[in-house]
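DATA SHEET
Item: assembly model
Revision: 1
Owner: S.N.
Input lines:
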Amino acid sequence: KQEVTQIPAALSVPEGENLVLNCSFTDSAIYNLQWFRQDPGKGLTSLLLIQSSQREQTSGRLNASLDKSSGRSTLYIAASQPGDSATYLCAAPPLGGSNYKLTFGKGTLLTVNP
Amino acid sequence: GAVVSQHPSWVICKSGTSVKIECRSLDFQATTMFWYRQFPKQSLMLMATSNEGSKATYEQGVEKDKFLINHASLTLSTLTVTSAHPEDSSFYICSASGQYEKLFFGSGTQLSVL
């Protein structure tokens, strides 16, 4: 069974700082990995999806990497802004199971201070 | 992009009553939808997979008679919490599978049972 862990649970940074959020998973035979953003009391917004054949994906100031051998993914946020404050979740599907039945980490609560 | 509408956003009900939550895919057809619940500072836990025209598939430990799921059309799935009790108070989120293996989430429903 795939297990997903995120470190740190919370992170507070000043505006403009570059930061890295970490995600680890137990089954290296991963099909894909997704990063989501969740605002308080809201649903999830998909940020980036990395297929197992890819090493990274970029969207604007966000860059997500995937290292299957070490069971890790990172989300890099450049030049952070107060609007980036949210909880960031990573998720992976189970090996051999539906690619939509994601296992989520508990998330990292990011606060960017102006 | 694909939009999933979920309502109500929040609901307060008395213990013993039933509550229905709707999840609609607005601009795409979703043969499969997913229902999650999330406790404060915890990750999303998959409750069930809703398939259009067939019975839902429930995760281990989720009472199917407690959480009734109906997926009568390609754009609508409903979750009914029957005879709700305070321990059912939680944040419920639906999602629908779209193109390129992405999941699109509703905005969530905060249920408070008094």
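QC remark: The interface with chain B takes residues 4, 32, 34, 36, 41-46, 49, 89, 98-102, 104-107 of chain A (CB under 8 Å).
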